[in-house]
């Protein structure tokens, strides 16, 4: 009787071990069926290579009603990858006299439009954010966005150009004006990369 009981126990252990091995094998097979994590596009990699990191900025503003002689400001910009590196996030902070302005931008690649979609949110905009209908794209070494909209029945053009892009600096120039006329420079941002150990 003990002999048959021992054989029965051995068979039960063997069966349980077999089921466990089968389950491990199924788990490994399931793991191999998990789709690979998607990778960011080469276009997003290019954008992040150009701008990712922390930057100090110096700004010049064209004369306007509130500043007849123009104005200057200083601040910081930080660029970083968004979730999955499928987007880029820009955080902006600047102090112009006693006023502090903050902003947040999000860029992502639109394959169908062959350009970067952009949303810009700023503390001076009561509407919250602007979702640009046109895309930004590379024109040689420069990244350019041109947007048109209507103000008081007139078509107005906004143009933004990221130029002089180098590993430790870039220049961001913002233009504006009525469509069909020469655009005027509204703002120039000179950015310098913050390096490790910098006191800026």
If you had to describe this structure to a student in words, what would you say it looks like?
This protein is of the alpha+beta class. It folds into two domains: 1-34; 42-193, Lipocalin (Beta Barrel). The protein contains two helices and eleven strands. The chain has helices spanning 2-33, 42-51, and strands at residues 53-61, 71-81, 87-96, 99-110, 115-122, 129-131, 137-139, 142-151, 154-166, 169-178, 184-193. It has an eleven-stranded antiparallel sheet with strand order 6-5-4-3-2-1-11-10-9-8-7, covered by helices on one side. Residues 1-22 have low confidence and may be disordered.
SSE blueprint and pairings:
Layout: H1 2-33, H2 42-51, E1 53-61, E2 71-81, E3 87-96, E4 99-110, E5 115-122, E6 129-131, E7 137-139, E8 142-151, E9 154-166, E10 169-178, E11 184-193
Antiparallel strand pairs: 1-2, 1-11, 2-3, 3-4, 4-5, 5-6, 7-8, 8-9, 9-10, 10-11
Quick description:
This protein has 200 residues and is an alpha+beta fold. Helix content is 21%, strand content 50%.
Distance from N terminus to C terminus (CA atoms, Å) equals 87 Å
Mean pLDDT across residues: 85
What's the Cα radius of gyration? 28 Å
Strand order of the largest sheet: 6-5-4-3-2-1-11-10-9-8-7
Q: Kindly estimate the percentage of residues that lie in beta strands according to DSSP.
A: over 45%
CATH topology of the largest domain: Lipocalin
* Order of SSEs: HHEEEEEEEEEEE
Catalogue the unreliable spans: 1-22
- SSE class: alpha+beta
């Amino acid at each position: 009787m003990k002999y048959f009981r021992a054989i029965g126990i051995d068979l039960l252990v063997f069966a349980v071990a077999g089921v466990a091995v089968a389950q491990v094998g199924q788990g490994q097979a399931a793991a191999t069926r998990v789709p690979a994590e998607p990778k960011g596009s080469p276009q997003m990699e290019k954008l992040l290579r150009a701008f990712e990191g922390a930057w100090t900025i110096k700004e010049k503003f064209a004369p306007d009603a509130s500043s007849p002689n123009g104005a200057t400001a200083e601040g910081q910009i930080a660029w970083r990858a968004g979730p999955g590196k499928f987007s880029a996030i820009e955080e902006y902070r600047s102090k112009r006299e006693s006023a502090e302005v903050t902003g947040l931008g999000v860029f992502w690649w639109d394959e169908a439009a062959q350009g970067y979609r952009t949303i810009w949110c700023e503390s001076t905009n009561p509407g919250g954010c602007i979702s640009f209908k046109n895309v930004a794209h590379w024109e040689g070494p420069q990244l350019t966005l041109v947007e048109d909209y209507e103000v008081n029945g007139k078509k107005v053009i906004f143009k933004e150009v990221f130029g002089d892009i180098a590993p430790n600096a870039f220049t961001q120039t913002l233009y504006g004006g009525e469509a069909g006329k020469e655009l005027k420079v509204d703002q120039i941002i000179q950015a310098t990369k913050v390096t490790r150990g910098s006191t800026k």
